[in-house]
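Exercise 7b. Backbone tokens:
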């Protein structure tokens, strides 16, 4: 349906009706979303209705007070759940024609990346555009950093151009927190060395929640290069806060027993834990962060820790396979497993856009649409 003209219509609107369906009580959730064109010449009216169980608990709205997203260590379980619930709403937006909402019109985000990235950088750029913000891409290789300018001065100069958020990836742990102390705009951590990668952790957790409904009581194994993995750290913080059990697994040179202090179990044998886990998150070996090779050969690693069809037969029937990417086929995962029915690798990518839309909308002060 198209409404022409410039009639002021509040959006989004959300209505819940309690109804008697034959003899059974139920709840009908009706949502109304008005999508405005850029020139305001017309509006699209999207109406959705969903019948749910009368006894289904409604989402508890948690007021959002965080200015930055520096890591999942800083967030409460309620705040993590708020991001996940908001991302669910944005997944509905992504399934609509146009895939965009005009929530952050007039806001500007800068992708300040000092390390290589395909998924995260592209995902943040798309997420910002799909909530109506402008995006500026920063290229470290052609910046004044090569002339001796510090990262703080670079960021302050960019902020002086009246931006609203910096999305930063840097090889040095703590860089996002350093910028948060020196800038007035919102800072989003897109990965700081081996420290944290909060939006990757969130999208992994969202993918798990969409499969199982809840994380409470699930057993999730993080397999691979735990020592150098920022994804592992964000996953551990988020998973534990939402009630999951976590096992870190890999060679003894990459998995420390001190992870017990963070509430995670550790194992040096993948085969020993396969029948216990609900989710396997297969992490890449990060050779670029290693000073010495942590195992004799890639072939040996693949033999001991690579997920293949033989090992799949030892897992639970409904096991979920995740991999944050980029994946090395034939090393941590074989092609038949990566492309198999248990794999949600591409779902992770889709969920990542919704998670980043949610993060931007919450940090920059706009409520998400309900569709």
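Sequence design result:
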């Amino acid at each position: 349906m198209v409404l022409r003209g410039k009639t002021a219509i509040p959006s989004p609107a959300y209505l819940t009706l309690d109804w008697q369906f034959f003899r059974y009580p139920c709840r009908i959730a009706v949502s109304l979303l008005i999508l405005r064109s850029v020139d305001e010449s017309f509006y699209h009216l999207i109406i959705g209705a969903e019948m749910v169980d009368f006894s289904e608990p409604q989402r508890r709205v948690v007021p959002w007070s965080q200015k930055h997203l520096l890591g999942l260590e800083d967030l409460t379980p309620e705040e993590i759940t708020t991001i996940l619930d908001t991302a669910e709403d944005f997944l509905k937006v992504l399934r609509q024609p146009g895939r965009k909402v005009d929530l952050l019109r007039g806001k500007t985000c800068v992708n300040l990346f000092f390390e290589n990235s395909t998924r995260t950088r592209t995902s943040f750029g798309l997420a910002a555009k799909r909530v109506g913000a402008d995006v500026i891409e920063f290229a470290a290789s052609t910046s004044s950093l090569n002339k001796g300018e510090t990262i703080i001065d670079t960021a302050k100069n960019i902020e002086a151009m009246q931006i609203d958020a910096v999305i930063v990836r840097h090889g040095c742990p703590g860089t996002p927190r350093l910028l948060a102390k020196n800038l007035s705009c919102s800072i989003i951590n897109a990965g700081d060395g081996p420290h944290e990668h909060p939006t990757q952790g969130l999208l992994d957790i969202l993918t798990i929640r969409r499969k199982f409904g809840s994380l409470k009581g699930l057993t999730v194994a993080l397999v691979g290069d735990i020592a150098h993995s920022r994804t592992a750290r964000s996953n551990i913080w988020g998973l534990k806060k939402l009630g999951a059990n976590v096992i870190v697994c890999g060679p003894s040179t990459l998995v420390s027993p001190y992870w017990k202090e963070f509430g995670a179990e550790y194992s040096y044998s993948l085969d020993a834990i396969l029948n216990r886990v609900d989710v396997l998150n297969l992490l890449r070996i990060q050779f670029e962060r290693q000073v010495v090779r942590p195992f004799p050969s890639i072939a040996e690693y693949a033999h001991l820790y690579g997920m293949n069809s033989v090992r799949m037969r030892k897992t639970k029937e409904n096991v979920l396979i995740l991999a944050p990417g980029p994946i090395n086929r034939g090393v941590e995962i074989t092609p038949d497993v990566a492309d198999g029915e248990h794999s949600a690798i591409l779902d992770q990518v889709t969920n990542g856009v919704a998670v980043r839309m949610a993060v931007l909308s919450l940090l920059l002060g706009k409520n998400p649409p309900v569709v």
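Instructor comment: The first strand starts at residue 2 and ends at 4. The mean pLDDT is 85.
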